[in-house]
């Protein structure tokens, strides 16, 4: 989207929608707090298939250990040689893009089978073809 060609009416509409979104997220947060106070546990422990807006994550609710790694590796595997953008991973997994950047700069850099294709794009390394273990010296 080229923002240099937006007129004031479009900007007003964008601002209005953004404010509505913020209000809804606050309502969700209030409902979540009320649920927690009534049940003593967060509704965030529901199945992970329930889509949440990226800003509506509940603080302190964590997924299964290693779940993010397996999901990212599955996306990288499906992406093939061209790899996948970090933004696309975040969108697909419905998590903030910053979380994915942090994952690649911490956990991801320790995995030997991940290769950086370009800034913000990663892929799995393809298995190299079998080669001899180095040059053979002739003992003559």
**The top level CATH class name of one domain:** Mainly Alpha
Radius of gyration: 22 Å
CATH fold assignment of one domain: Arc Repressor Mutant, subunit A
Q: What sequence of helices (H) and strands (E) makes up the elements?
A: HHEHHEE
Separate helix tally: 4
CATH architecture of one domain: Orthogonal Bundle
Main sheet properties: 3 strands, antiparallel
Which stretches are poorly predicted, pLDDT < 50 over at least 5 residues? Answer: 45-52, 127-131
How large a portion of the residues is in β-strands, by DSSP E?
5-15%
Strands of the widest sheet, in order across it, are 1-3-2
Give the overall shape, derived from the CA principal axes: flat
Looking at CATH, the homologous superfamily of one domain is Winged helix-like DNA-binding domain superfamily/Winged helix DNA-binding domain
Helix content: 40-55%
DSSP strand count: 3
State the distance separating the first and last CA atoms: 69 Å
Mean pLDDT: 76
User: Structural class given helices, strands, pairing?
Assistant: mainly alpha
Question: Can you tag this structure with a few keywords?
Answer:
mainly alpha; Arc Repressor Mutant, subunit A; 3 strands
Describe the structure.
- This protein is mainly alpha-helical and 140 residues long.
- Among the domains are: 8-41; 64-126, Arc Repressor Mutant, subunit A.
- The chain contains four helices and three strands, in the order ααβααββ.
- It has helices at residues 8-39, 67-79, 86-93, 97-105; strands at residues 84-85, 114-118, 121-124.
- Strand 2 (114-118) and strand 3 form a beta hairpin.
- Helix 3 packs across helix 4.
- The longest helix is centred in the first third of the chain and has 32 residues, at 8-39.
- The chain is flat.
- The relative contact order is 0.09.
- Residues 45-52 and 127-131 have low confidence and may be disordered.
